[in-house]
Amino acid sequence: MNNKIIWLLIFIVFILEGTWVHWLIPTGWYNGLQVAPHFVLVLVLFVSIIRNRHLGLFFGLMFGLMHDIVYASPMLGPHSFSMGLTAYAAGVMAKRLKITMISALFMISFSIVLYDVVNFLVFRMFRVIDVPFITIFSDFIMPTLLFNLLFAVIVYVPARRWMDRRKVHQEDESL
Amino acid sequence: MFRLLGNKKLILLLACLIVFIALMGLTLGERKTLTWPEKLVKDTVSFTQSLFYKPAGITAGFFENIGMLSDVYEENKALKRKLSDYAQDAVRLNILEERVGPLEEALLFTERQKQANRYIWHFAEVVSSSPDPFDQTININLGEKDGIRENMAVATVDGLIGIVRNVAPFSSSVQLISAIDYRVDSTKAIAATTKENEESFGMIERYTADDLLEMNKIESTDSIKEGDTVVTSGYGEVFPKGLIIGTVVFKGVSDSGITLKAMIKPAADLNGAKLRQVFVIEVPEP
Known about the structure:
Shape of chain B: globular
Largest sheet of chain B: 6 strands, antiparallel, barrel
Radius of gyration of chain A: 16 Å
Helix content of chain B: 25-40%
Helix content of chain A: over 70%
Oligomer: heterodimer
């Protein structure tokens, strides 16, 4: 798949994340439990794992910055930083491991947790939120991980197929 | 760490860290206006999102309406009763306004004082809400060009929900009152009083984990009680006067032990994802 198409696809998911996905999340769960869709992050991680880490880093920085601007974060940069960092980290891991479904999902879950933890630390450092880590961890990070891992499982096969095809073509052309 | 990344890359990573921390530090806090690239991105994305949000809202609203079909009869009765009350109130209001007008003239009220309570309600549609619970914001489809300014109050028909945080030409972001926390610099406390007794006074300073607002700094002689309707007092000069915030569900001694505190159940639904239509309230400038 062409880079431009991936770009467009993730942009569409970015738009849906702020508009449609909320309606899919059940609200009547345990009081105080929060689930955030990180679908853009999951797709960026796929790019980083299946393509390469530099492309993933670039995508992460750009989409993170877009999140910061559109949703009026208290400051510019936190999501850009965390998304870029986690995408790169996932890419580095992918370079060392053989990519199977299990290892890819492991990398993705590690990265989702890393993303939320980095966000939390940055916001905590700048005193934008003031909540103890243990509450955030049990009420937000863990449910969010499960929810997004579900999404990752669903898109794993199509993502693998679409993103990998280009690589095969490229190798064919280069031969 | 060194093995994993290599020296050059580690230095690059640290440089990135420094750049980002500088960027965050510089843009933290209240900025007067957004830069033009930000406005451009924000307006473009918000416009695209509005195309997606509307059908989703309509679909969900349709199913909600089917669910509420059984209540229609009861609701109709209640509304009819309200309507007759409203007609009586309107007559009373007209009489009172006629009486107050000449008095204001006699007391030489300035134009600003006369206009102070004439609020303009701008109707706005929600285009998206932030997927990240660390920053509870929604975006609406009115912006600078429609007369929206920073720090205007935002409400639904049920009550106050937030405050305009920043504006682009055709869209703006609203920070929900569920973000209020006195330990954090980027939120504002709300000066509040009750509908039952305008002498009551307290500051809404925090949104607790069990979805209640905490009202502090209430004097121990205050007559506030459970069941009272809490409204904005307008003393803070940020929020207009008389917007409904919620009802008192608990009253007790504050943590310091000197003043009282009250827990308030918000009147409006603060779940950003379920909001569709909101009002931005403009206080006329002198």
